[in-house]
């Protein structure tokens, strides 16, 4: 009898976490490493949010809470969805969990049966397929390449749907590409989904507030009210509020699904950290002016990185609409040899050689389901980004 579960054979560790850990290990040995793998803002949580957490501790709000969130936070989430997305939810339709990842995982665990299919546009966040596999479902990746600006077309979505399709996972702006769907592009997808009533929509809106230029964020149930009763609208405070370590995610959807997710959570983690919930409450109800300031900062960094990468030999880097990632194409680099003698057979080999020869850590495209590419998180200082991109330029110039 094997000791470890057979389930583990169906999943793999997160490559983004692996790259970040590798960069830290090299830095600990004295190497000059610039880590561009982690997807988290480099600035601190706003002071008013930290102060709210301290007050919660001082006031003794350190006990168990309701399994899926304190009433005050659920009420604030309902107000947020109404104010920012035009969506009406009641607290009974809201769930709060230990990060956005647990929200998605709970929903999949509560709904998937063996044979159920989940459509996932690729490139995708690394955890989507593995969470589907852990829940017993079958991920169905659909490639959306650079020729469509990394966006799924209605025809591709239509072709991927089968009688076994239970979920469509939608992420805009996207991790890893930063690609954002316009209202018209999203409406074209929702028109397809309206024709397939068995398909539910999991909308991962984590990067909602990180959009650039004149891009307007929209969410599926907002664009097509007819999908309201089969959409789980997911979000969290990690990215926009610089609260990655606080671990608070939330969602809203049909009451039956929310109850089922609560059952899963009651037998796994139980309630999210009480102090973090009060911090998130302040985040959603307190001053929001810093969002625009941070958005402008990220837009400047995006323009810096896109400009410098497009000057690198063999790299094509589209300009994303949001998030804090770029996903450059390196087709012209494959099959070459680095100055250090490494054979660049694929994007993983590119990323490995780049780290070993220049100290720049990126995540290779195969981890996100679309190659040959790599992902850069530009959630770090302009100085670090400028130096990293200069090293990438030098690395590419040395390929032969």
Provide a descriptive summary of the structure in words.
The structure is a single chain. The chain has 400 residues and is an alpha/beta fold. It folds into two domains: 6-44 and 290-397, Alpha-Beta Complex (Aspartate Aminotransferase, domain 1); 64-285, Type I PLP-dependent aspartate aminotransferase-like (Major domain) (Aspartate Aminotransferase, domain 2). 39% of the residues lie in helices and 12% in strands. The chain contains 13 helices and twelve strands. The chain has helices at 15-28, 47-58, 71-85, 100-111, 127-134, 154-160, 183-194, 220-223, 255-266, 274-285, 289-309, 347-358, 382-397; strands at residues 34-35, 94-97, 117-122, 138-143, 165-171, 200-204, 231-236, 249-252, 325-326, 360-361, 363-364, 374-377. The protein is globular. The model has no long low-confidence stretch (mean pLDDT 96).
Please give the structural blueprint.
Layout: H1 15-28, E1 34-35, H2 47-58, H3 71-85, E2 94-97, H4 100-111, E3 117-122, H5 127-134, E4 138-143, H6 154-160, E5 165-171, H7 183-194, E6 200-204, H8 220-223, E7 231-236, E8 249-252, H9 255-266, H10 274-285, H11 289-309, E9 325-326, H12 347-358, E10 360-361, E11 363-364, E12 374-377, H13 382-397
Parallel strand pairs: 1-10, 3-4, 3-5, 5-6, 6-7
Antiparallel strand pairs: 2-8, 7-8, 9-12, 11-12
Helix pairs in contact: 2-10, 3-10, 4-5, 4-9, 11-13
InterPro entries: Aminotransferase_I/II_large (IPR004839), AspAT/PAT-like (IPR050596), NHTrfase_class1_PyrdxlP-BS (IPR004838), PyrdxlP-dep_Trfase (IPR015424), PyrdxlP-dep_Trfase_major (IPR015421), PyrdxlP-dep_Trfase_small (IPR015422)
EC number: 2.6.1.-
Family: Belongs to the class-I pyridoxal-phosphate-dependent aminotransferase family.
């Amino acid at each position: 009898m094997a000791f470890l579960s057979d389930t583990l054979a169906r999943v793999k560790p997160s490559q983004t976490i692996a790259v970040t850990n590798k960069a830290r290990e090299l830095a600990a040995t004295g190497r000059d490493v610039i880590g561009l793998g982690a997807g988290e803002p480099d600035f601190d949580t706003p002071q008013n949010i930290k102060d709210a957490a301290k007050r919660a501790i001082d006031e003794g709000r350190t006990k168990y809470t309701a399994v899926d969130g304190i009433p005050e936070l659920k009420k604030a989430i309902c107000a947020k969805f109404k104010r920012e997305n035009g969506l009406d939810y009641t607290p009974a339709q809201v769930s709060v969990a230990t990060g956005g990842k647990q929200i998605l995982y709970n929903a999949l665990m509560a709904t998937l049966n063996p044979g159920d299919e989940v459509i996932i546009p690729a490139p995708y966040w690394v955890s989507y397929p593995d969470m589907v596999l852990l829940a017993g479902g079958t991920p169905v990746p659909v490639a959306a390449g650079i020729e469509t600006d990394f966006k799924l077309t209605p025809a591709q979505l239509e072709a991927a749907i089968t009688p076994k399709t239970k979920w469509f996972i939608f992420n805009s702006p996207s991790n890893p590409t930063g690609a954002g769907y316009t209202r018209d592009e999203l409406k074209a997808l929702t028109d397809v989904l309206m024709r397939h009533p068995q398909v539910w929509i999991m909308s991962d809106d984590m990067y909602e507030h990180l959009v650039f230029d004149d891009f307007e964020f929209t969410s599926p149930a907002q664009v097509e009210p007819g999908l309201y009763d089969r959409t789980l609208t997911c979000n969290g405070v990690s990215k926009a509020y610089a609260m990655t370590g606080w671990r608070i995610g939330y969602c809203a959807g049909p009451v039956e699904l929310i109850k089922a997710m609560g059952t899963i959570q009651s037998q796994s983690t139980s309630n999210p950290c009480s102090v973090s919930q009060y911090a998130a409450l302040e985040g959603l109800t307190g001053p929001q002016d810093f969002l625009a300031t941070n958005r402008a900062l990220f837009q400047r960094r995006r323009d810096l990185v896109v400009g410098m990468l497009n000057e690198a030999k063999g790299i094509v880097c589209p300009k994303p609409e949001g998030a804090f990632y770029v996903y450059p194409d390196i087709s012209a680099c494959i099959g070459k040899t680095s100055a250090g003698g490494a054979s660049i057979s694929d994007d993983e080999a590119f990323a490995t050689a780049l780290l070993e020869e220049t100290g720049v850590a990126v995540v290779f495209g195969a981890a996100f389901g679309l190659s040959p590419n790599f992902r850069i998180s530009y959630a770090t200082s302009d100085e670090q980004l400028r130096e990293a991109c200069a090293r990438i330029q030098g690395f590419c110039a040395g390929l032969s």
